[in-house]
Design a protein that fits this description.
This protein is an alpha/beta fold and 390 residues long. 37% of the residues lie in helices and 22% in strands. The chain has a five-stranded mixed sheet with strand order 3-2-1-4-8, with helices on both faces. Strands 5, 6, 7 and 9 form a four-stranded mixed sheet that branches. A four-stranded parallel sheet has the order 11-10-14-15. The model has no long low-confidence stretch (mean pLDDT 89).
């Protein structure tokens, strides 16, 4: 078997459904499997999986064992030569895994030191997520992050290590650290590393795994030729418990991998505390503003009427023109427009491309998953998304 896609879920039932639908499309031409492991969700994630995806392997944990242990349990059941560790709040393109496997196979044939491979991630507004590629968070790198020096001097090799800014978002190349929302590697490498470190419940376990691959003289890589949506705000509630775990693990990571010194310990503690405070602050819910108008990209006229009834607003429908989604300039310039992308009609790749192409405009976006009766999206990478049942 070529590939095992591991999806660890906890209480994100609708995002999980969207994710699995996109993965199914992406592996249809591959010898691949999907393994969903649920960390004792209190929603109906497992019931949905059994009803909607009866042929997908589902592992039901009786407790929330955390991100590292949950993934390690699932990997023990995996049969693929390659693994993809994937968050449930992600959406992949139909050709994501074909491109990734072609890339990693060619790299593996030409060298024997390939480590973990990540890809280009965007949030639900189409904006690039800089954590797609990162440097090792040493005390100095943490210092440049804490004081915003990476923003002031983005081209300086002295200050731009945190987000690996020497490598452009549309440039494939070597990086040190990848994000656990999307990681591809040989199952053999995962086992050699011993999987994720179960001493940490969650947070920065991806940093630890990436760093341990480097210690084995492997080269981690960022691959820009496929784009994946990571809604990001779904997997974790940013609260006091989050702060405690995050700060604790950053301290654990520093003590595990680096020599102790007064400066280091001070920077580690201050840096971890700063990052956890920032994450909690950014994670606070923002007031949601209802769209002034809706655009549906679909060939389904009945769906347009159904949405208009549910949303209590008129919905304008548009079609592809020469394979492109065309939105009139009048609508494009209007404020607070929500675009609903019917993946039954568009597929996932075109929907993802539309988000990227129209970021930082007046649009917000929702996806209608294939064969589903809800629309879903997120207007902030730091906040819970929105699900509207139809």
């Amino acid at each position: 078997m070529q590939l095992s896609v591991i999806i660890l879920n906890y209480n994100v039932r609708y995002f999980l459904e969207l994710c699995v639908l996109s993965v199914q499309k992406a592996i249809q031409n591959l010898d691949a499997e999907i393994i969903v492991i649920d960390n004792n969700s209190s929603d109906d994630s497992c019931a949905m999986m059994k009803q909607r995806f009866p042929n997908v392997k589902l592992i039901e944990n009786k407790e929330n064992s955390g991100f590292p242990k949950g993934n390690n349990i699932a990997v023990r059941e995996a049969k693929g030569e390659y693994l993809c560790i994937l968050n449930p709040d992600t959406v992949v393109s139909e050709d994501t895994f074909e491109k990734l496997l072609s890339f990693v196979s060619s790299q593996a044939q030409s060298r024997d030191d390939l480590g973990i491979v990540g890809c280009k991630l965007i949030d639900g507004t189409g904006n690039f997520l800089p954590e797609s590629k990162r440097g090792i968070p040493t005390p100095w790198v943490a210092f440049t992050k804490i004081f915003g020096l990476y923003k002031i001097f983005p081209k300086s090799s002295m200050f731009n290590k945190y987000y690996a800014q020497d490598l452009a978002e549309n440039q494939t190349g070597k990086v040190d650290i990848l994000v656990g929302a999307f990681m591809v590697m040989k199952r053999e490498l995962y086992n050699e590393l011993g999987g994720f470190d179960e001493n940490c419940f969650m947070y920065a376990d991806d940093i630890d795994l990436s760093y341990r691959a480097l210690l084995l003289q492997k080269q981690n890589c960022y691959f820009h030729e496929t784009t994946v949506i990571h809604y990001k705000g779904e997997s974790t509630v940013k609260d006091a418990t989050y702060m405690k775990h995050f700060r604790g693990f950053m301290n654990y990571f520093y003590q595990k991998h680096f020599k102790r010194s007064l400066f280091f310990n001070l920077m580690a503690r201050f840096g971890a505390f700063y990052f956890s405070i920032v994450k909690v602050f950014k994670g606070k819910s923002q007031p949601k503003v209802k769209p002034n108008q809706y655009i549906l990209v679909s060939d389904n006229e009945a769906l347009k009427e159904k949405l208009a009834t549910k949303l209590q607003k008129s919905v304008e429908r548009t079609l592809l023109e020469n394979g492109k989604i065309v939105i009139s300039q009048t609508i494009s310039k209007a404020k607070n427009t929500e675009v609903i992308l019917d993946t039954n009609y568009l597929g996932f790749k075109k929907a993802i491309a539309f988000l990227e192409e129209n970021k930082n405009k007046s649009f917000t976006f929702k996806l209608l998953p294939i064969g589903s009766n809800f629309i879903i999206g997120s207007n902030s990478s730091n906040d819970r998304g929105e699900v509207i049942n139809l």
